Amino acid sequence: MASNKQTFFILSLVIFWYSSNIGVLLLNKFLLSNYGFRFPIFLTMCHMSACAILSYFSIVVFKIVPIQMLKSRSQFFKIATLGLVFCASVVGGNVSLRYLAVSFNQAVGATTPFFTALFAYLMTLKREAWVTYAALIPVVAGVVIASGGEPGFHLFGFIMCISATAARAFKSVLQGILLSSEGEKLNSMNLLLYMSPIAVLALLPVALVMEPNVWDVTLALGRDHKFMWLLLLLNSVMAYSANLLNFLVTKHTSALTLQVLGNAKGAVAVVISILLFRNPVTVIGIGGYTITVLGVVAYGEAKRRYR
Questions:
Q1: Are 293 and 263 in contact (CB under 8 A)?
Q2: Where exactly are the transmembrane stretches of this chain (predicted)?
Q3: Phi and psi for 39 in degrees, rounded to 5?
């Protein structure tokens, strides 16, 4: 009986994790491309604000996880650095959604393992087995093929998407280096608690300079579309939920399970986005994305076997 309850609990976590991840991605695309809300930096700031507020309530008030206190100024500066890199990755991803279809955005995002392996080698000189590196060839080749077959290819959007993917990988490697000592390690929820306010403070002046009319346009959209504020609030809450559920799924399963589920999540997001937004796809594009996903699966398996 207990086993059935545990299975149901984990299954529920995975379903909610899928829903929040795919939901925030699709809502981002809807707001930025179909709704006239063309402010990716301000949108990211809304996400980070929700993460800061909800992290505080989750950890400090409701004690979902024990709070981990900062122990030194050095640790704070390391976390601030991670926060800025994290900001860059989220902003880049949101900017790319203005120009690219979600399906192609996910195909490019699937190359994260390539950049992670590259940065790990450049920054730590950590080498993997040759089989592991060989598995990265289809990861990159698939995106090259998908790019050639993408009807709505946009160079700037592609550059921003690649930059966001690289920044995401850079952050994960940097996190391993900066917070490697036992005394400085933080779980992902506590890290988000400290990174989010820093991200908001960093994004505020950038949004004011680069998106000066954001408040006027947002208010106008709010008057014209009665669900505008509700969508923005829901989008921001889902951004936090995706982080929280990512942590909980990892805690109750394993990092390997999360990786497998993540690969499947990308494929599900692609299918739903095509059905929802009706963006044109080609056989070449689908083939390229499939090759990339298979390469990611092979890379994960190679890393597991040749540690």
A1: yes
A2: 7-27, 39-64, 76-97, 103-123, 130-147, 153-170, 191-209, 229-249, 256-277, 283-302
A3: -135, 75
Q: What is the mean pLDDT of the chain?
A: 89
Q: What pTM does this model have?
A: 0.89
For residue 129, the one-letter residue type is: A
Residues 91/202, Cβ–Cβ less than 8 Å: no
- Please report, as a single letter, which amino acid is at residue 104: F
∠ CA 162-167-168, nearest 5°, is 100
Q: What's the rounded mean pLDDT across residues 190-211?
A: 95
Beta carbons of 132 and 93 less than 8 angstroms apart:
no
With bands split at pLDDT 50, 70 and 90, how would you rate the model's confidence at 256?
Answer: low
* Burial of 296 per CB tally in 10 Å (0-12, 13-18, 19+): buried
Q: Check whether 255 has a pLDDT greater than 80.
A: no
Spell out the SS3 assignment of the chain. CHHHHHHHHHHHHHHHHHHHHHHHHHHHHHHHHHCCCCCHHHHHHHHHHHHHHHHHHHHHHCCCCCCCCCCCHHHHHHHHHHHHHHHHHHHHHHHHHHHCCHHHHHHHHCCHHHHHHHHHHHHHCCCCCHHHHHCHHHHHHHHHHHHHCCCCCCHHHHHHHHHHHHHHHHHHHHHHHHCCCCCCCCCHHHHHHHHHHHHHHHHHHHHHHHCCCHHHHHHHHHHHCCCHHHHHHHHHHHHHHHHHHHHHHHHHCCHHHHHHHHHHHHHHHHHHHHHHHCCCCCHHHHHHHHHHHHHHHHHHHHHHHCC
